[in-house]
Design brief:
Distance between the termini: 27 Å
Largest sheet: 13 strands, mixed
Oligomer: single chain
Strand content: 25-35%
Structural class: alpha+beta
Number of domains: 2
Helix content: 25-40%
CATH class of the largest domain: Alpha Beta
Shape: globular
Length: about 325
C-alpha cells in the first residue's frame, strides 16, 4: 500500500469511491467535494492523504483533515480544534489497516499543528457530515476503539409539502420579514458580527464574497430599519452548496434548505425564531419547492411545530490528543 498526499487531480476517483459506499443515502457530486475539500482554505494538507494500490494505482481510501488556517478572511479563530471531515475506505480493501494508517497520519499532522481536540465531522466550515451517520454504527465502534467518544445525536429534518399546503409570510407588529437585497450586505454583516460572531459571520462573509445577492437570507427588520434577525435558505440556484441541500440528488424534485437562523438576544422570547423559519419556508414554497430540509439540529420539538420531522441522524464524537 502506498500513502500519498491528497491530490485534486484524482477528485473523480474520490467521488466514485464515496458513491460505491454511500450513493443510496449520501450521494456525492464533484461540485460538492471540490467546494468542501479543495476550495476550503482550512484544509490541512499535511493531514489529508490517499491510500493507493501500488500495483494498479487504484484509489482505495482517503482522509481529509481541517484546522483553522484562513488568514485571508480577515477573521481570527484559535487552532486548538481539528476536524476529520471524511475517512473513506473501499469495502473490498477493509481489514488491511488502511483506515488506521490514514487516521494515524491525520492525527500526527494535527499534533504538529498544535491541535488538542479532534472532532469527527462538523468542520469549521464546509463540512460533509455533522458527525457519523447513525446508520453506520460499525464506524462509531471503530472510532471508539481508537479513543473517540461522545453520545450526542444531531438531526437533519425534512418536511414534504403537498400542492395544497400554503405557507404564509408571517406578520408581526413593528417588524417586517423580507428577503435581503444586495444593498443589505454591509448592514447584515455588521449584524452578524455584533450578534453572531464566529462561524455564522464567517459563512455569511463567504456567501457575499462568492456571488451572493441576498436571495438566500430572510431578514427580520424593525420599522426603524434595524436588522434584528436572519434565516438562511438555499435552493438549486444558490451560489454555494449549503449543508441542507447536499443530498438533493436523492429527490426527483428540487430540494430546498433552511438554516441557520438567529435573533438578536434583545428581541428573543417574542416568537420571532419560529416565525422567521416560517418566512423562509414561505419563500421556498413560492419558488415551487415542496421538500425542505433543516440540517444539524437537536431541536425536534421546536421545528416540529411547523411540521418538520427527523430524517437523518448523526453521532458526534471527538478525541482529546
Amino acid at each position: 500500500m502506498e500513502f500519498k498526499p491528497l491530490n485534486e487531480a484524482r477528485i473523480m476517483e474520490m467521488v466514485a469511491l464515496w458513491n460505491r459506499e454511500w450513493v443510496e443515502a449520501y450521494p456525492m457530486r464533484e461540485r460538492l467535494l471540490r467546494q468542501n475539500v479543495f476550495d476550503d482554505r482550512n484544509l490541512l494538507e499535511a493531514g489529508s492523504w490517499m491510500a493507493v494500490d501500488p500495483a494498479t494505482d487504484r484509489l482505495l481510501g482517503f482522509i481529509t483533515a481541517k484546522v483553522w488556517r484562513d488568514a485571508e478572511s480577515g477573521m481570527s479563530f484559535d487552532g486548538d480544534t481539528g476536524w476529520l471531515q471524511a475517512l473513506v475506505v473501499d469495502r473490498d480493501a477493509r481489514g488491511q489497516g488502511i483506515g488506521g494508517q490514514l487516521l494515524a497520519r491525520a492525527e500526527s499532522a494535527f499534533r504538529d499543528a498544535g491541535v488538542r481536540s479532534v472532532v469527527l465531522g462538523n468542520d469549521f466550515h464546509w463540512r460533509l457530515f455533522p458527525g457519523i451517520p447513525a446508520e453506520n454504527p460499525e464506524s462509531v465502534r471503530w472510532f471508539e476503539r481508537r479513543g473517540y467518544a461522545g453520545s450526542e445525536l444531531t438531526y437533519d429534518l425534512l418536511h414534504e409539502y403537498g400542492e395544497a399546503d400554503v405557507v404564509e409570510m408571517p406578520r408581526a407588529d413593528g417588524v417586517t420579514f423580507r428577503l435581503a437585497r444586495p444593498d443589505d450586505r454591509e448592514e447584515l454583516l455588521a449584524f452578524m458580527a455584533r450578534c453572531f460572531p464566529g462561524r455564522w459571520e464567517y459563512q455569511a462573509r463567504q456567501y457575499w464574497e462568492r456571488g451572493g445577492t441576498g436571495r438566500e437570507f430572510v431578514v427580520l427588520q424593525r420599522d426603524n430599519g434595524e436588522i434584528i434577525g436572519f434565516c438562511r435558505l438555499n435552493d438549486a440556484q444558490s451560489p454555494l452548496l449549503a449543508q441542507n441541500i447536499y443530498w438533493a440528488p436523492l429527490f426527483a424534485e428540487e430540494l430546498g434548505g433552511i438554516g441557520p437562523l438567529g435573533i438578536d438576544e434583545r428581541f428573543r422570547g417574542c416568537g420571532y425564531g419560529l416565525s422567521i423559519v416560517q418566512a423562509a419556508a414561505a419563500v421556498l414554497r413560492e419558488r415551487g419547492i415542496d421538500r425542505i430540509v433543516i440540517d444539524t439540529t437537536p431541536y425536534l420539538d421546536f421545528y416540529g411545530k411547523l411540521g418538520y420531522r427527523a430524517w437523518k441522524s448523526y453521532w458526534r464524537l471527538k478525541r482529546e490528543l
